[in-house]
Recover the amino acids of this structure.
């Protein structure tokens, strides 16, 4: 298991390096970069100073390696300092946002909690809805419940979240007035009324994201349970007189959840991508909104860093899914 | 002596596929729905002859024409500049469907090429599949947004805002969505390569290029068809997400996604301007997905004829 994990870890490193290079070069070499947006009326020597102040006068590869070093070395140091009150970083230069002139990671630290609250609870709710639906659909294959489940999963795949989100706003916020349309980020939960307010404002975005996730996960669960229901060990269990509930919940469920767990892990990064849209609909100022904001003012360091964080998430969860699969299913380890 | 009874001409393989497809009720309903939608956007403009970009020149009149509720003159009302929504829905639908189809063609072309090369030539396999894995690990939506923002003005400057945006979106979506097709095709090719007919072709000295074109490609047609159908749906969604985030088409060249984005500001007063485009996108994608599902069943010989 250790060798397996190590091998997976080692293959993740070149992938991450390649992705970081792709992201950096794509953003940096594009024609729409802010260097070309300095007005022509600015005198050349001032222009030179402006570019130098942004650190953009160095050759591309110097800037790339500096950015890599800052991302993987300097910023973790600051994180350690922040948590333990040490001084490892010695005031080394951090990745600075061109827009707000504060370190990009400070910005992300401010935005991440909102995204995590909404995305995390949405994913949890989605999984909790999807698993029972998937299991029961498989157990009663081709029943009306299964048919309805298939249809709703198809609708969940096909209807874009920006449409479901706006329809929900239209019905529940505009027409019925049950929920607020805009997410109030300044709200802190300290007592029951504020907790209730938090629940109310989270209801719509969480529903939108959860429905979208539940569609995919319930399909995977269904097919995985179906596959296991046809296995010999199920017939054996039934033949020796095990009741239906233990057969389904103890024997079948254990085995069929193995691929589902990996799908859940693999799906998490895509949810962050989906959160970009949801944050835009409900005006949540999370990390996705920060990305859109940075793109619109061509704040390159922020765009590069947030995009790369998404990439790190994808690679990390791929790794987690692989390792989980290895732990749960011993047959996988010896490939 | 027996008269050779001319055997009834065997129905071609496509007839069997069609017969199986017809038994998929969801897919048949979807096919009809998609046909109606296509008729709406392609034949509709022949009957409904209002210019989707017509804005009243007279400012006073234009102000009176803004945000009209549905009426006989404008069955879906008018938008914030007094343009007819029905005409804009037809116009936008044509562009949405065109983007979906062309982006799918780009993705399928790249995917099939990579898949066939990786499956057929062992030397390329490792590198091409690593490339595929790399693309799968890219954060696609953020990258698409960045690409749209950085290249839109530059390309629009060369090719004009309409053609430029169209090409950019189509290429960007195509380049970021070929990976599933490549994986499926590679798997098929790996199995096909070992089959006797390929061995036979090779033993009479057929060059690789001809083996690929004549023997391999026709046999990977079914998975490619399914991937292509599902690819159209995915491309339409991606384009509408870009438009929804304000990084898609310009407003005088709208897609359904762009129309929805334009309607968001007035969602309280005229919600139908959000609902119609959203419904059109959802129904199109839903029916394309159902058709893909039906095709997958119909093209699978293990299911067919059951």
């Amino acid at each position: 298991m250790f060798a397996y994990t190590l091998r997976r870890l080692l293959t993740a490193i070149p992938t991450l390096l390649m992705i970081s290079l792709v992201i950096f070069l794509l953003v940096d070499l594009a024609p729409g970069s802010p260097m070309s947006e300095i007005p022509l009326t600015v005198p050349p020597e001032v222009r030179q100073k402006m570019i130098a102040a942004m650190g953009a006068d160095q050759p591309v590869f110097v800037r790339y390696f500096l950015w890599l070093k800052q991302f993987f070395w300097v910023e973790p140091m600051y994180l350690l300092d922040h948590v333990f009150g040490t001084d490892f970083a010695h005031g080394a230069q951090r990745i600075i946002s061109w827009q707000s002139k504060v370190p990009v990671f400070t910005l992300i630290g401010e935005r991440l909690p909102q995204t995590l609250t909404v995305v995390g609870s949405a994913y949890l709710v989605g999984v909790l809805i999807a698993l029972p639906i998937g299991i029961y659909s498989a157990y009663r294959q081709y029943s009306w419940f299964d048919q309805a489940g298939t249809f709703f999963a198809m609708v969940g795949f096909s209807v874009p979240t920006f449409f479901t989100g706006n329809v929900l706003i239209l019905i529940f916020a505009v027409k019925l007035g049950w929920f607020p349309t805009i997410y109030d980020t300044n709200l802190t939960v300290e007592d029951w009324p504020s907790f209730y307010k938090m629940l109310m404002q989270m209801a719509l975005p969480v529903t939108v994201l959860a429905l979208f996730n539940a569609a995919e996960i319930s399909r995977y669960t269904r097919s995985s349970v179906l596959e296991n229901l046809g296995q010999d060990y199920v017939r054996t269990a039934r033949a020796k007189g095990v009741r239906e509930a233990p057969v389904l919940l103890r024997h079948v469920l254990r085995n069929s959840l193995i691929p589902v767990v990996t799908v859940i892990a693999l799906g998490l990064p895509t949810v962050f991508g989906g959160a970009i849209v949801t944050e835009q609909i409900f005006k949540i100022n999370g990390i996705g909104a920060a990305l859109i904001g940075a793109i619109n003012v061509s704040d390159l360091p922020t765009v590069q860093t947030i995009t790369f964080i998404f990439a790190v998430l994808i690679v990390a969860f791929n790794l987690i899914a692989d390792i989980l699969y290895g732990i749960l299913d011993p047959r996988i380890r010896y490939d | 002596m027996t008269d050779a009874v001319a055997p009834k001409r065997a129905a071609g393989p496509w007839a069997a596929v069609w017969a199986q497809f017809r038994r998929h009720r969801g897919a048949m309903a979807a096919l009809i729905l998609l046909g109606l939608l296509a008729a709406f956007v392609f034949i509709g403009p022949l009957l409904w002859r209002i210019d989707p970009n017509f804005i009243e020149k007279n400012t006073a009149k234009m102000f009176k024409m803004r945000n009209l509720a549905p009426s006989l003159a404008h069955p879906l009302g008018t938008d914030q500049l007094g343009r007819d929504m029905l005409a804009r829905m037809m116009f936008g639908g044509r562009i949405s469907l065109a983007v979906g189809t062309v982006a799918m063609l780009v993705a399928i072309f790249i995917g099939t090429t990579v898949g066939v090369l990786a499956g057929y030539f062992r030397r390329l396999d490792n590198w091409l599949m690593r490339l595929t894995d790399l693309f799968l690990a890219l954060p696609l939506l953020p990258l698409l947004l960045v690409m749209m923002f950085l290249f839109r003005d530059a390309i629009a400057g060369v090719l004009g805002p309409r053609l430029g945006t169209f090409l950019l979106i189509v290429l960007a979506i195509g380049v970021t969505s070929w990976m599933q097709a490549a994986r499926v095709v590679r798997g098929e090719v790996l199995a096909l390569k070992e089959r006797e007919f390929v061995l036979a072709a090779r033993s009479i000295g057929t060059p690789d290029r001809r083996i690929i074109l004549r023997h391999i490609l026709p046999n990977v047609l079914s998975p490619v068809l399914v991937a292509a159908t599902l690819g159209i749906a995915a491309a339409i969604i991606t384009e509408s997400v870009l438009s929804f985030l304000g990084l898609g088409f310009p407003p005088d060249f709208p897609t359904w996604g762009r129309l929805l984005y334009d309607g968001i500001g007035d969602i309280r007063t005229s919600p139908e301007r959000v609902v119609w485009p959203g419904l059109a996108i959802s129904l199109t994608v839903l029916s394309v997905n159902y058709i893909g599902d039906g095709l997958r069943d119909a093209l699978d010989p293990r299911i067919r004829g059951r």
